[in-house]
Amino acid sequence: MENKSFDVIIVGGSYSGLSAAMSLGRSLRQVLVIDSGLPCNRQTPHSHNFITQDGEKPAVISAKAKLQVDIYKTVQFYNGLAVKALKTNKGFEITTESGEIFKARKVLFATGVKDLLPEIEGFANCWGISVLHCPYCHGYEVKNEKTAIIANGEMGFEFAKL
């Protein structure tokens, strides 16, 4: 990648990062989206509560969004992991896992969440498929089914009510 200086670097290229990239790109800002390609919903078979996309695979939604953002020549993509951010006199420097350094006047972190899973054999393989973490996202599909809740303290009680 020749250009290493941008108006804005967006760390995270899923739904919110791509939405921001589109808005900034349409505003003629020079934008770099740095994304590892490992969203937390990567093995979830269906997305819910996302208007016009209910039931669609998260990867399909992201791929369509990226195609739409890619139209704007002011937006570039870097496949990799951002590992360090440094404030400078002129803005920010973002260093990637491979050692590349990119500069920008502004940085937007759109990294989402990281699920911390218990060390239970097979748990990670079922995450988002049969082990469901969000009653708002997945509750409708399993309504009236037998359910086990794994939680500590009052949170377990609150999840049970949902």
Short structural summary:
By secondary structure, the chain is an alpha/beta fold.
Task: Give your account of this protein's structure.
- The chain has 162 residues and is an alpha/beta fold.
- It has helices spanning 15-26, 58-70, 123-126, 135-138, 153-161, and strands spanning 5-11, 31-35, 75-79, 82-88, 91-96, 101-109.
- β5 (91-96) and β6 form a beta hairpin.
- It is elongated.
- The termini are far apart.
- 20% of the residues are buried.
SSE layout and pairings?
Blueprint lengths: L4 E7 L3 H12 L4 E5 L22 H13 L4 E5 L2 E7 L2 E6 L4 E9 L13 H4 L8 H4 L14 H9 L1
Parallel strand pairs: 1-2, 1-6, 2-3
Antiparallel strand pairs: 4-5, 5-6
Helix pairs in contact: 1-2
Total helix count? 5
CATH names the topology of the largest domain as FAD/NAD(P)-binding domain
Largest sheet: 6 strands, mixed
Q: Return the string of H and E elements.
A: EHEHEEEEHHH
State the CATH superfamily name of the largest domain.
FAD/NAD(P)-binding domain
**Global mean pLDDT:** 91
Number of domains: 2
Shape: elongated
Q: How large a portion of the residues is in β-strands, by DSSP E?
A: 15-25%
**Separation of the first and last Cα atoms:** 48 Å
Q: Give the C-alpha Rg.
A: 19 Å
CATH level-1 class of the largest domain: Alpha Beta
Count the E strands. Answer: 6
Kindly name the structural category: alpha/beta
Strand ordering within the main sheet: 3-2-1-6-5-4
| CATH architecture descriptor name of the largest domain | 3-Layer(bba) Sandwich
Which regions contain 5 or more consecutive residues with pLDDT less than 50?
A: none
Helix content: 25-40%
